[in-house]
Every structure is written in structure tokens, then in C-alpha cells.
Design a protein that fits this description.
mainly alpha, single chain, MetI-like fold
Length: about 300
């Protein structure tokens, strides 16, 4: 008799959990539609999306879009101004600047996405551990994060590059380490807000494990600020990679990376300003595109924007 009552109680609990999960899924679908609708109405965000679409197309179809090889030099055509033959001119080695910018979009996207992904994974893990468990774990992790934040990001990246050596892959590692504290703090703050919610307490009450609570109840509700920060961090990562390459610590010649193009062209700035101007414009437009999208996502995901 006792076992029958227990079975009935288990069935009721399972039905309640199933109904709650269905309600959560419906709410998430409704929220996603609302976010997309808000984002679509944001003209600045849509302009940013347009910029990023052009960038992605350029990166994917670079061999088809680039009129010349980005590495082969032609001394006879060195420092030619913009013309029908070379739309954006040539550099001091006669390489077509447009082709190098198109191929450079591949490197910029690669650096931004990979470095931010690494930062998100490791920073997110630290943030979850600190926010969920608290106590000594939180104190140790957050003091470590505070120490990292005490260093200026550029100097920290340069210091890491001094240890690892000048290389594009090492630049990605340095940028990911520099950006990791941001994600750790954002994820920790989100976890602290979410873990006190009633559905998390209910999950603990029915015997859910820490792993189940983190991945099923906490992480899905921490995605909004993480998505916004990821978008904005890609822009900063591209800018930091360009800065490291400009200093000779990132991509090495003849790699068509925008920062390296700025460094190579600065000696000809006065006689051929287009060598520096167009890579600089490419960096600026790309960063603006990611920032506009990030701002749009922040507004779309912010519940205070709902009328």
C-alpha cells in the first residue's frame, strides 16, 4: 500500500515537472520571437547586421571576390593610387589593397570568434563556480579576477605576447586571457541573480543535482547578458588583434591582416595615404558593425524595453 502511494506521488511530481517544462518552453519561444521583433525594428542594429553580412560574405568567398593574389608583389605597380585597375590602390610592394582587405576579413573574424569563444568558456566556468558555490571558491576566483583587471588590457596582452612570442595564434590566446575576467564577472552576477529564483529552489527541493540545476535552470537564464557581451567583445578582440599586429606582435608579414597592413604602410603615409586609410576604415566599419549589433541585442533583450 505504501509503495502504491509512493508511485502515485512520483507520477504526480513527474506530471507537474512536465507541465512546468512545457510552460517554460512556450515562454522561451514567445520571448525569442519578441526579441527578434525588437531587433528587427532597431534600424541601427539592422545596419550593423548588414555590415557583418558583407564581412562574412567577404571572408567566405574571398578567393572569388579578390581581384588579385593578396601576397604576390608587383614592384612595377608599387604605391599606385586608386584606379579602375586597383580600386583601392597598391602598397609599397605593389600588392592590391582591396584583395588584402578582403582576405583580411577572414583573419579578423577568426581572431574575434576564436578568442571570444575561449574567453567565454573559461571565464564562464569561473563565473559559474564563483556564483553558484560561493564561499572560499568565490573569494579565490574573484581575487584572481581582480588581479587580472588591475593590469591595463593592452599591457597585459603585450606581456603575454612577450612570453609566448609574436604569432597570430599567440595573439588569440593573449586576447582571450585579457577578455576572460569580463565574462567571469558577468556570468557570476547573472548566476547570483538566478540561483535565488523560485524554480531553482524548487529544483533543489526535488533532489536535482548541481549539474542539472546549472545546465537546465541557471545557464539558460544567464544567456542574455552573455550574448550581448560576446558581440561587443568580438569588436574589441578585432581591435586588440589589429593593435598587436601593428606593434609587430600579432600576424607577421606577408599575412594580409588589417593591423599589420597599417604597420607596413605607415612609412608611406605622407606620399600614399590610401595604404593606411583603407585598412583603417575596414577596422572601423567592422568594429562599428559589431557594436551596433551588440547595442541592439542589449535593447532587445532588456525587459525594461517592453511596453
Amino acid at each position: 500500500m505504501h509503495e502504491n502511494k509512493k508511485d502515485i506521488q512520483d507520477e504526480i511530481e513527474n506530471e507537474i515537472i512536465h507541465e512546468i517544462n512545457e510552460e517554460i518552453e512556450e515562454a522561451e519561444e514567445s520571448l525569442l520571437k519578441e526579441v527578434v521583433k525588437r531587433l528587427y525594428k532597431n534600424k541601427a542594429a539592422m545596419f550593423g547586421v548588414g555590415i557583418l553580412i558583407v564581412l562574412i560574405i567577404s571572408a567566405i568567398f574571398a578567393p572569388l571576390l579578390a581581384p588579385y593574389d593578396p601576397i604576390n608583389s608587383n614592384i612595377l605597380a608599387r604605391l599606385e593610387g586608386p584606379s579602375l585597375k586597383h580600386w583601392l590602390g597598391t602598397d609599397d610592394l605593389g600588392r592590391d589593397i582591396l584583395s588584402r582587405i578582403i582576405y583580411g576579413s577572414r583573419i579578423s573574424l577568426q581572431v574575434g570568434i576564436i578568442s571570444v569563444s575561449i574567453s567565454l568558456i573559461f571565464g564562464g566556468i569561473l563565473g559559474i563556480l564563483a556564483g553558484f558555490y560561493g564561499g572560499k571558491i568565490e573569494m579565490i576566483i574573484m581575487r584572481f579576477i581582480d588581479i587580472m583587471l588591475a593590469f591595463p588590457s593592452v599591457l597585459l596582452a603585450i606581456g603575454i605576447m612577450a612570453v609566448l612570442g609574436p604569432k597570430l595564434s599567440n595573439a588569440m590566446i593573449a586576447i582571450s586571457i585579457v577578455n576572460m575576467p569580463r565574462f567571469a564577472r558577468i556570468v557570476r552576477a547573472s548566476v547570483l541573480m538566478v540561483k535565488s529564483e523560485e524554480y531553482v529552489v524548487a529544483a533543489e527541493a526535488i533532489g536535482a543535482t548541481d549539474t542539472q540545476i546549472i545546465f537546465k535552470h541557471i545557464l539558460p537564464n544567464c544567456l542574455a547578458p552573455v550574448i550581448v557581451q560576446s558581440t561587443l567583445s568580438i569588436a574589441s578582440a578585432i581591435l586588440e588583434a589589429a593593435g598587436l599586429s601593428f606593434l609587430g606582435l600579432g600576424a607577421q608579414p606577408p599575412t594580409p591582416e588589417w593591423g599589420a597592413m597599417l604597420s607596413e604602410g605607415r612609412s608611406a603615409l605622407q606620399i600614399a595615404p590610401w595604404v593606411v586609410a583603407f585598412p583603417g576604415i575596414a577596422i572601423m566599419v567592422t568594429v562599428v558593425g559589431f557594436n551596433l549589433l551588440g547595442d541592439g541585442l542589449r535593447d532587445a533583450l532588456d525587459p525594461k524595453m517592453k511596453q
